[in-house]
Design a protein that fits this description.
single chain; about 170 residues; mainly alpha; disordered C terminus
Length: about 170
């Protein structure tokens, strides 16, 4: 059981890292424009809701009972929608912090305090993702969960071979 959870955590975080690397390259290109004189910015974390939605989509493709399908649908409402709200709040707050950093005379203590808030958004997002993935596992069972995680690993391997970022289709 611990091996399965460890594998899940490694898969989720490796997906996040690959996705984040692509996003960082895109943001770096944008951040070098004339609007950001100091070249400073805060990088956005990957959209964990996309990863959870992808796992949900793959879980829904299995041969599940009506009650299991109903429980999976409830996960959207309970976890994914709040995660999307949290990601939106993070983006808005991130934009505000970036505006503070555009001022060359910014207050370092204020920036540190604001960064702590952004960190809290990220921790909340990760915790919701872990809870959502555990809920999916509980609904579909360990054997089906292994199948779903195998599907995720295949998608990840295919993307790596093609040199593409790992991104949810949902």
């Amino acid at each position: 059981m611990r091996t399965l959870i460890t594998s899940l955590v490694i898969l989720v975080f490796s997906s996040c890292i690959l996705f984040a690397q692509n996003m960082m390259k895109q943001r770096e290109e944008q951040d070098k424009g004339p609007g950001n004189q100091m070249g400073m910015t805060i990088k956005l974390p990957p959209m964990m809701s996309n990863i959870v939605q992808d796992i949900l989509t793959k879980a829904s493709s299995l041969d599940l009972s009506d009650s299991q399908e109903k429980e999976l649908s409830a996960i959207l409402e309970k976890y994914v929608f709040p995660m999307i709200r949290n990601e939106s709040d993070f983006k808005i707050y991130n934009m505000k912090v970036n505006d503070i950093l555009k001022d060359q005379n910014f207050d370092p203590e204020k920036v540190k305090a604001e960064m702590k808030v952004l960190e809290e958004f990220s921790i909340k997002e990760i915790n919701m993702a872990i809870d959502a993935i555990a809920a999916i596992r509980d609904v579909i069972g360990i054997d089906n969960f292994k199948v779903v995680m195998g599907m995720m690993a295949l998608r990840s391997d295919e993307a790596k071979k093609k040199g593409l970022p790992i991104k949810s289709k949902a």
